[in-house]
Amino acid sequence: MVEAPRVTVLAGGIGAARFLAGLQRVVPPESITAVCNVGDDLDWFGLKVCPDIDSVLYTLAGVEGADGWGVRDDTRHTLESLRALGGETWFGIGDADLATHLFRTGRLRQEETLSEATAALARARGVGVTVLPVTDDPHPTVVRTADGDLAFQDYFVRRHAAVPITGVSFPGAPTARPAPGVLAAIRDCDLLCVAPSNPLVSIAPLLALAEVDAAVRESRARRVALSPIVGGAAIKGPAAAMLATLGHDVSALGVARMYASLIDLFVLDTVDAELVPAVRALGLEAVAVDTMMVGAEGRERVARNVLYAAGFLD
Amino acid sequence: MVEAPRVTVLAGGIGAARFLAGLQRVVPPESITAVCNVGDDLDWFGLKVCPDIDSVLYTLAGVEGADGWGVRDDTRHTLESLRALGGETWFGIGDADLATHLFRTGRLRQEETLSEATAALARARGVGVTVLPVTDDPHPTVVRTADGDLAFQDYFVRRHAAVPITGVSFPGAPTARPAPGVLAAIRDCDLLCVAPSNPLVSIAPLLALAEVDAAVRESRARRVALSPIVGGAAIKGPAAAMLATLGHDVSALGVARMYASLIDLFVLDTVDAELVPAVRALGLEAVAVDTMMVGAEGRERVARNVLYAAGFLD
Hints:
The structure is a homodimer.
Chain A: E1 7-11, H1 14-23, E2 32-36, E3 42-44, E4 47-49, H2 51-61, H3 77-85, H4 95-109, H5 114-124, E5 130-133, E6 142-145, E7 148-151, H6 152-158, E8 165-169, H7 182-187, E9 191-194, H8 199-207, H9 210-218, E10 222-226, E11 229-230, E12 233-234, H10 239-245, H11 252-259, E13 265-269, H12 276-280, E14 285-289, H13 295-309
Parallel strand pairs in A: 1-2, 1-9, 2-5, 9-10, 10-13, 13-14
Antiparallel strand pairs in A: 3-4, 6-7, 6-8, 11-12
Helix pairs in contact in A: 1-2, 1-13, 4-5
């Protein structure tokens, strides 16, 4: 462990979860705050499901499924029974995963906020990192497609991200307020990391809250972003296709451009080292390191690389 | 099968479910309507659980658990995970059972009524009997105890029916309206059966709706009640202790007194044959037959006994 910098991570789902899991091996978990996207949340048969928060919690607790979703080695008895009843099961939830959604929904029904329910889940799973939803208010990501506006999971899971998109919108953004602790965590940390998450549907929803965007701009922290695009492809998820469709460069450089006014340092993977000069030409510091988070050691190595590049490790 | 009388059953949980299961072996299911108690319903981590309706549906579908609750041979993976999270698990729900509550809750969230959601569940399980909640409105049974007012499941399951009760109340009764089809099913049937259910917390909540009570009184059907008390004990559940505590005779005669103004014929078990004259002295017809519903054949035999006693079988 190093002398602990206070680290805040703007987080989507799996990429952020893995980065955070590496980070908590290097920095005390109590010094880390994750500000999580809620744009992907869905109502599943009346239960509140928060896929990004859950990926973060499960991964930090070390119980995440092999592909980053749900709980490791989970069964699907309830889902199979639902299917037998003719219920819609395109969003697959395992039995142990389901307990999380019941736990959360029960607390929300008792007038707890999503922040409070999330904190209770983190305590129950022994997660030391502070995990915050960016807002306790409704703040869905809406994907615009030729088939009309779709909720994120409808686009991503039900339609396998196979419908061409024409845009992304955040209709809740004008009224959603940052959850308690979010603005302070962004302003008062030493290191603010934009996780290697989808810029358009994981990070953009966070910044769509004007107060969050302002807090990032005003933060005195060292501000670092990790590229979710490596060698022109996304490590996970639909980021590459979305970037292309919406007219962005499908490259680390394309992502760096999107963040240029918000950050100080952009971290690329070594395979993209030739893009460093172009990123620097945007007025950013840039460094190419190993960003592949394979296994616990890989995740820790990436966290160390980022801390080192940002000046928090010798 | 006999020439089909239209049969309506005022139903609680397990006793009613077993009687209905016998009945559908003798009368075409399409000729049978169950009007079900909803006073025991609960909100379980945000899901709507209807224990009486579910006991009826599961038993009619032939998938009920060995003790009458839940689904046969069900697993409890989600419940175990909930317990590990520190969630309250005094109301135990299995994984396949949970699918029912998700299916129902999802439909209620889409603005379906409980009647509609129940009909969808019956279709999904191939149940031919028409299963109606007595009302689509909130209509909880409240148990008054020295510890204060308790929701039914809080009293019955969480506290194991071990708290002395001082009364039962139905605060929703003044405003709850009978669900579509309920009054017609009671008025327009040939045989109206009061199932061998708890008079105080299964049948009383049905009759607590003034329109239901009036429909029973005005019905031209042959009106029959089966005693849930056999040899001075309840076949299942807390009926005996409740009757005693609230000053009723814990006997078939005590139950007959409660129904005397509503029915034509009271059916006792043969072990209570000596009570027949006392029941007749109440102005009721009375007959003692085998009412023990052990196994599918036992259930069918009881249904045949009731149909015969009521004059619908030669």
